Amino acid sequence: MSRDTVLVSADWAEQNLDTDGVVFVEVDEDTTAYDAGHLPGAVRIDWRTELQDQVVRDFVDRAGFEKLLSAKGISNDDTVVLYGGNNNWFAAYAYWYFKLYGHRDVRLIDGGRKKWELDGRPLSTDVPQRAATSYTAAAEQDRSIRAFRDEVVSAIGGKNLVDVRSPDEFSGKLLAPAHLPQEQAQRGGHIPTAINVPWSKAANEDGTFKTDDALRGLYAAEGIDESRPTIAYCRIGERSSHTWFVLHELLGLPDVKNYDGSWTEYGSLVGVPIETGSGKGSS
Amino acid sequence: MSGCGAPVQTAQLPANVDTGREVVLAGRVTTGGAPVRGAFVRLLDGQGEFTAEVVSSPQGDFRFYAAPGDWTIRALHRSGNGTATVTASGPGLHEVDVTIG
Known about the structure:
The complex is a heterodimer. Chain A is an alpha/beta fold. Chain A is built from eleven helices and nine strands. In chain A, the strands form two sheets. In chain A, strands 1-5-4-2-3 form a five-stranded parallel sheet. Chain A has a four-stranded parallel sheet with strand order 7-6-8-9, with helices on one face. The longest helix of chain A is centred in the N-terminal third of the chain and has 16 residues. Chain B is mainly β. Chain B is built from no helices and nine strands. In chain B, strands 1, 2, 5, 8 and 9 form a five-stranded mixed sheet that branches. A four-stranded antiparallel sheet of chain B has the order 4-3-6-7, with no helix packed on it. In chain B, strand 6 and strand 7 form a beta hairpin. Chain B is globular and about 35 Å long.
């Protein structure tokens, strides 16, 4: 795994907007961002209504994913280039979905929508009409990159647990990021033995990823043991997709899972251990 | 389930926000006295660590729900960047504007 196969620059993206076999997909939490202007030719995927099951708290199943990509006009052989706002959180989340269902060639635009806008690159309000395809998912979900709660509880003290939320969320001071009202009811804190490496430490101010050397140094300094499996989590699993991308796709750690249940699940479980405070000095 | 992304920024506080309980940091991004829309507004904590990011509204507005302490607001835009600081002693609305250029 290397940057060449998982990441493209904004320059590359602009030069390949019309390239056959390359499909640009915007994934934002705020889907109105697409309506106000998107990369020319890009289609939209709504993470909440199109990637999530609308009844059960879970992802769309294999058939649902196939139906979605077919309707979007995406083929199995297409290079899918994802980008979005929020420093690519939801684009990274979608990237992880595409990998769960085995899409062959999927990439992120380094810096996402923010870098694109800061560069003053073109945006369009035209919605492309792509002919429907017959997409076939390569496999059932690849569980080697998705962690569930029981595995997380049993990983305490064993695997690397990386909490990628902000320090105040990690300590229990806040229950959600600081741009959201703090209305959640679940308990605050973090999973015991987790280290706190906020997702933002992996990104530059303009949203691009830091260099491989800087990233390796960052996680080593925070105490990740590369010989052990790693589970990343946040509040709902999208910021931790960003870190999963860094650890698994950029740095090539072999066993990295994203715990998409994350704190909204863990912090509401009855009886599981929770630690508060900075976590420094815990075993 | 709500995501972790920022809601659309407005000058008026949502009705469900209790300023008797919440520490609200809010203001406008301007350049030459004019509001700047679409700026990336980043909240950094007292150690300079990134905490949150929103996009300014058409009127240049931004808002964060934080905790008591010293905060830095950093705004990025294709026309320039700017920085401002604010200290929140407790719950309530703490106003802070950022000029870019």
